[in-house]
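The authors assume throughout that readers already know how a fold can be written as discrete tokens. In essence, backbone conformation is discretised, so a fold becomes a row of integers matching the chain in length. A single example would do more here than another paragraph of explanation. For illustration, here is how one protein appears when written out as sequence plus structure tokens:

…
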Amino acid sequence: MSNRLTTWLSMLLIGILFCALVLLNNQLLSNYRVDLTEDNVYSLSEGSQQILTEIDEPLNLYFFFSDKASKNMITLRNYAMRVQSLLEEYASRSNGKIKLHILDPEAFSEKEDRADQFGLTAANIGTAGEAVYLGLGATNALDDQQVIAFFDPQQERFLEYEISKLIYQLVNPKQVKVTLLTDLPVAGGQNPMTGGFDQPWTFYTQLQQLYVVEKIGSDASELPKGTDVLIVAHPKNLSDELLYAIDQYTMDGGRALIFIDPHNESDQMSMLTGASTGANGSNLTRLFDTWGVNFNEQQVLLDAFAGLDVRTQTGDVTRHFGFVGFGANELNDKDVTTSSLDLINGASFGTFNKEGNSSLSWSTLLHSTKNSDLIDSALYAQTRDPQVLSQEYKSDNKEYILATRLTGSVTSAFEYAPEGIDEQEHLRQTRDFNVILVGDTDLLSDRFWVQQSSFFGETITTPFANNGDLVTNVVENLAGSNALISIRSRGTFARPFDKVDQLKLVAEQKFREQEKILQQQLDETESQLAQLQEQQGEGGALVISAQQQEAIDDFMEQKIQIRKSLRDVRHQLDKDIEKLGNLVKFGNIVVAPLILVLFLMLGRRLLRSRYKPARHTPVNAKEGQS
């Protein structure tokens, strides 16, 4: 009876201790976490933590997730938990500057109205066609607001970047100023070739809609003050004063996007003046030499696999190896500027190479396929027939760098400041260099990525490539702080079942082998039946010999057996996966708790044996008498 009472008291004390520890953890240790995931998906990078330290006013984050409407959507619910956990990490590390509100916007509720006010996306994928929200709305003390309309599970690698960008934009609501340095007719105007008036280029119009844009030409001697992002397109014959201004801008931590080209096909003035063949290229040799960049302006890329179909003067359609379109396989899926893009079209690309003395880190954003070759830019300019280019093409089985991001430390291209500039103001080195180079300028022109049509007097542009998205993505990225730019794609929350994938792969191979055998048998039978149809007798009746009938019966029986074997393979696949799943469930539900209980019982027994009072033998009274 005493032992039983002791056991119950011990269990009661363990329960009280457990509740006390849980309460203590929630109250005192909630801000302390240990991230044991392989890619630290629940931890914030240094860039995000730096952004949190720059918050100087309270922020409110409203996380909208349709918990009830997504009752049976396991994958989406798991991802929502991942998002919520990361948002809680932001709030816990903000020193009270971020207040997180978790809302379930049920149908016809005030919370749903609030989600609509933020402009969040309602996906009609819930039970009974209910709208499902999975988005974030945020406000600062001045009622500025930013939103993430819907957290796409396919973009999980950039989850932290999107949240950090939202916070950064609330903390820094100032509009971004973009300076565009170019002599290309991006603003439209009179066309010297036709005499008519051209519309502004679409990428330029998009920039004006999103940012404050100031356009300057090559005759400028300095960059406008307050420039957040500098775009240089087709630089030719820039003065030393302007080169020095670009150099010092980058030395001072300025961000730049530079488009250069070995042969620009949209420069109207060069075509009008009949510029010498091969002279319609651009380069920044003085700056590139210092940065350790070798841009090949003497040769143009030909790519047989990425070539675009064009219409010739005779009306035929042929592939142009110099007019190219690069898909997702040639774009960097780890960089936020290119990961979501599907197609980039351009013409006469130039290639980049890293010099041995370069101290900068290179991150390739766009590369060619291995079915590529280089051709002399002068020969390319003279050749108008795409078929002639295809004859000149010889694959060298090499991928070429067409766009790259340069980051790190670099010195100035100017040892001394020009005359008239104080030497003390001359910046000689920076550790905060961030420039993106693109080896083509034609991709900016409309004909390679948008189609224009007139609708009741309005010009409608329909993009068929992501050239404009590339420009806006880069500007948005470069306009952020150093901390925001440093945030790259993170690991994914969902972990694949490698063993299951291996089982599927083996079964699929067996299935395809059997399927191939069956298909061969079917082809043989169809051939035999076709021959039999030619052997019709009188009155159109089909005459089949006993031997032919026996052959057909044998095949039908064999066909049945092969189909049965196919079903067996599929059944075995499901059986192996189910067996593995049951084994995992048994381990999680039965084995792991039993092991834990055994450890607890062993620990309890050790404690009891350690603190058990010593048993004393009573002294015999008679023996104690003298």
